[in-house]
């Protein structure tokens, strides 16, 4: 099911008044971010509930801050937005996840003005190709697609940068790379599949794949009580009607059972005669 809108964790914050009262207005209005909306080739949009009861729909990340003495970054709203969101949305369908491993972690962001800024992880937005019955006009499924990590920045703003602009901190095991000499990591853009192999692996008719009928057929047959030399073998399955083939199998089974019983009686009889003869006893006749 396609998902144009998604819930986010509730964030108590401020919206800049120029976004709700007009460009000449100043100041901030308190409220909550509670949702997000993705539209291809547009900035990520967020939904805001104000403290005076109005909901403001699809506001850009540049409209918000989480403290009153936030850094304006630029008087040009387009430039301010580009510093807080690097890329527009790649599709119309999104999912929101809070990754426990990243939660509350400190992270540095390399912004478009080539300045490093720091913040804290809150949650992640990722877009994807939605309904397969619809024409896919986005590029969220590309190997080089971007996600959006929602960060609470130390300067009072919010930002949603992708992975390749971030330097994470985790004192348990991370030694952050040098900002002036980042590792020369290359993009892995090869699309792979786990099924582009020999399909015979999964050709077993059994529930567990480690039964291979073709190997079982190749094994030489031994004459045992459970596999008689009288076992029926069809030389030409296509020329024998199914009912005749079944009858032939039943006859072969009957012969096999008769032989097993006969061999058993004979073995018992021979053992009994030997016992009586060894003890000088008269063997009882039938």
Total number of beta strands:
11
Overall pLDDT metric:
83
Q: Estimate the global geometry from the Cα principal axes.
A: elongated
Low-confidence stretches: 228-232
The value of Rg in angstroms is 38 Å
What percentage of the residues does DSSP assign to strands (E)? 15-25%
* Major sheet description: 6 strands, antiparallel
Task: Work out the helicity level.
Answer: 10-25%
Question: Which structural class is indicated by helix and strand composition?
Answer: alpha+beta
Distance between the termini: 82 Å
Number of helices: 3
The total domain count is: 2
Order of helices and strands: EEEEEHEEEEEEHH
Overview in brief:
The protein is of the alpha+beta class and 286 residues long. 18% of the residues lie in helices and 24% in strands. It has three helices and eleven strands, in the order βββββαββββββαα.
Question: What features would you describe in this structure?
Answer:
This protein has 286 residues and is of the alpha+beta class. The chain has 2 domains: 5-168, no CATH class; 222-278. Helix content is 18%, strand content 24%. The protein is built from 3 helices and 11 strands. The protein has helices at residues 77-84, 213-218, 242-278; strands at residues 5-16, 28-37, 45-50, 55-60, 64-65, 93-97, 106-110, 116-128, 148-153, 158-159, 166-168. It starts with a strand and ends in an 8-residue tail after the last helix.
